[in-house]
Amino acid sequence: MPWTARILAVSALLLAGTAVPASAASPIDLTSGFYVNPSSAPASWVASHSSDSRASKITASIASKPIAKWFGNDANIGTSVASYVSAADSHDMLPVLVAYNLPGRDACGGESGGGAGSLGAYKTWISSFAAGVGTHPAVVVIEPDALGDFDCMSSSQIADRNTMLTYAVQMFQQKAPNTYAYLDGGNAGWVAASTMASRLKAAGVADARGFSVNVSNFYTTGQSISYADSVNSGLGGGAKYVIDTSRNANGSDGTWCNPAGRRLGVTAQVGGGAEMLLWVKTPGVSDGQCGIAPTVPAGTFSPDLAVRLIDGT
Q1: Per DSSP, which regions of the chain are E strands?
Q2: What are 176-194's pLDDT values in tens digits?
Q3: Residue 187 annotated as binding?
Q4: 45 is known to lie in a ligand binding site
Q5: What GO terms describe the biological role, i.e. biological process, of this protein (predicted)?
Q6: Which pTM was predicted?
Q7: pLDDT digits (tens, 9 = 90+) for 261-305
Q8: How far apart are CA 219 and CA 243, in angstroms?
Q9: 145 is catalytic
Q10: CA–CA separation, 234 vs 280, rounded Å?
Q11: CATH of range 31-311; options 3.40.50.150, 2.160.20.60, 2.60.120.260, 3.20.20.40
């Protein structure tokens, strides 16, 4: 049933005085599963390399699975986002999007720098992003790593970042009513849970659905649940959280940038110990010119990295 029909059905129940569960109009209930992006980086690689011996393995294990789509510094961000969520809606599926455009992003790691040129530019961009989602059902992860990079930032930069994140949360609250928005909360091996809870509060998490953990990292689902529960305790226990399971089946070896021996985790699902388990990071996309991919820039798909994740090598 298309999401518009679902909303009409809920509205009819309300008008009839019938009790409707609080979750009845959630983006999960308004759709029939997670959207598989036919133009994801692995899918695009397979389409261009169909005769490659690795193509069938990558198709079966990665390209055919629901993966979040990341959006960066796009002058036409509203149109780009609207096109993507509309495509998902046409299949009655739930899209997962990542907003990744903060000025000075990846301040500590340094491999994925860039972002909007100023605080004002970011506000314009994120407002257009949220407007592009509009009333479509969606899940949005807001600015991975944004609250973990503070050791590399000045107090004024941190204050500006909190201003931008708070504004981002407000934009989704105001302009995207059928979206679950999650501020990123780092991972189990980075920032102490109590510290992360304080940072999330300062960034406006109270106006979001909750927070995400383990984005682009490798900690097991169990480790991530334990960490997220501790963060949530520091928030008073009212937030929901999602976990990136894209590369976490073998856990972390303590490094974050293209380590060997990692493996694909469970694919996107509702529940699993969190509100959702998601593939936020695209498996096979490089973390940077490091680890087992020293010549592959951050954000670039590598079939060799993809096959290593499939095989766990």
Answers
A1: 69-71, 96-99, 138-142, 179-184, 210-213, 240-244, 269-270, 276-278
A2: 999 999 999 999 999 999 9
A3: no
A4: no
A5: cellulose catabolic process
A6: 0.93
A7: 999 999 999 999 999 999 999 999 999 999 999 999 999 999 999
A8: 10
A9: yes
A10: 24
A11: 3.20.20.40
